[in-house]
Amino acid sequence: MSTFPLYLFIFIVFLNRYVFGLYLTLVRGRKFDETIAGYEPTITVVVPLFNEGRSIYDTIISLVRLEYPADKLAITVVDDCSTDDSYEWACKAASEHANVRVLRNPHNMGKRKGINHAVREATSEIIVSVDSDVIVYPTALRELVARFTGPEVAAVGGRVHVSNPNANWLSKLQTIKYYYGQEHLKNLERALRSVMCLSGCLTAYRRHVLIELEPILEDRNIAGIPIKYGEDRFLTRQIIKRGYRTVMTMDAMCFTKAPTDLRGYFNQQLRWKRSNIVDFACGLGHAWKLHPLVSVHYLSMLLLLLVYPFVIAAHVLAGQFFGLVQFHVGLIALFGMIYYLSPSTRRLPPWLRVHPIAFLPMAVLMPVAYLLLTPLGLFTLDTASWETRGHGAVAAAAAPPGGAR
After folding, report:
1. Inter-residue contact 51 to 385 (CB < 8 Å)
2. Which helix (H) or strand (E) holds 74?
3. Helix (H, G, I), strand (E, B), or coil: what is residue 348?
4. What is the 3-state secondary structure (H, E, C) of 213-234?
5. Which residues lie below 8 Å from residue 54, measured CB to CB, with a gap of 6+?
6. What is the pLDDT of residues 46-100, one digit of tens each?
7. pLDDT value for 86
8. How do 126-129 and 73-79 pair as beta strands?
9. DSSP code at position 259
10. For residue range 10-30, what is the model confidence (pLDDT) as tens digits?
11. Residues forming beta bridges with residue 304, ordered by sequence position
12. Could you give the residue ranges of the DSSP H alpha helices within 65-206?
């Protein structure tokens, strides 16, 4: 009987993350991903840069080749005092293309302040944020701007694909994880046009909204120490807090390289854990103003983040860790099969798909990550590291993915 509240909580989280979102997707039908025709605003693509080496050149070239009128498209790269040859590669691209501009911060300021620097310099109506290790699909800009269906829509996010899905077992696992993060976990938020985290890999913003929020974005700190992680989640929440809508579309695609070693993977997960802890906790005062379903979703995610490590620890102390792993293996196997049989997965070209058995190691990685990284994240919230992911873009990702969505 004592476990009933725990299982009830898990059931509520499951309903919010999967069932309610799917239901609203079916109910809204075509309105789920509304578009407008003929909207062709001026765009500045902003790329924050730190220690990406030659790959920044490939990223810039892919942006220059996007399917959008050249006279309405500008690309601004903001170098945050890279210590390698990134700045030189960015300048090389700028020397070859008239609509590419390279800025350099006076000192290492972090991703968000670098983007703010570029936004202040821009005059375009729309700002598109693209991470420096990302390759953007040619039609992505048109798909993004088509979702600005009214002045209340302040930001539109795109779909992130893993560009190296079959590199090894770890990249295969993350390919399925990204699928759930994009296809299912945000469906409820998408249906209610309150997506709580739009990825910096590919998101379009109304410039005037970014200017409006600049004082808040510039002064983000913990105990007086500026923090440079979780900028995307923080920005999205501030946009929603101001009363604007945030949407996401699967038709605007980009490609990012997943970590292929455990050190890189756990560093990534630690960044995300810190971001989640800070954002969920700081957003509690505003969560009750959200749509009830989004509010429950938001609060349940915070509780899951904080409670789950204690559940794992309790099983470890009781000698039941392997029983917990067995439960996770069954659950992960089910999710792997859903991924494999999903129509959206079937539409992807073979190089973007992986075998569902690749998801099974998540049965161990997930509890380990929660048990170790959640407390570590709590004790390192005041880090001021830029926290670059330390990998480059994959030019091959620019290849057309067929009927991918």
Report:
1. no
2. strand 73-79
3. coil
4. HHHHHHCCEECCEECCCCHHHH
5. 85, 89, 392
6. 999 999 999 899 889 989 999 999 999 999 999 999 999 999 999 999 999 999 9
7. 93
8. unpaired
9. P
10. 666 676 666 776 666 776 666
11. none
12. 86-96, 111-121, 140-145, 169-183, 187-191
Helix (H, G, I), strand (E, B) or coil at 246: strand
In the numeric block, the tokens 């190691």 are attached to 361
Mapped onto helix, strand or coil, the DSSP state of residue 308 is: helix
Length of the chain: 405
Q: Do 353 and 326 contact (CB within 8 A), yes or no?
A: no
Of 173-187, 213-227, 270-284, minimum mean pLDDT range: 213-227
Strand 126-129 to strand 203-206: parallel, antiparallel, or no bridges (unpaired)? Answer: antiparallel
Helix, strand and coil percent figures for the chain, each rounded to 5: 55, 15, 30
Helix (H, G, I), strand (E, B) or coil at 360: coil
Architecture of domain 1-405: Alpha-Beta Complex (3.90)
Angle (CA) 207-77-236 rounded to 5° is 40
Domain ranges of the chain: 1-405
* Residue listed under structure tokens 């990284």: 373
**Which one-letter amino acid corresponds to residue 279?**
D
Q: Would strands 153-162 and 203-206 be described as parallel, antiparallel, or unpaired?
A: antiparallel
Predicted TM-score (pTM) of this structure: 0.86
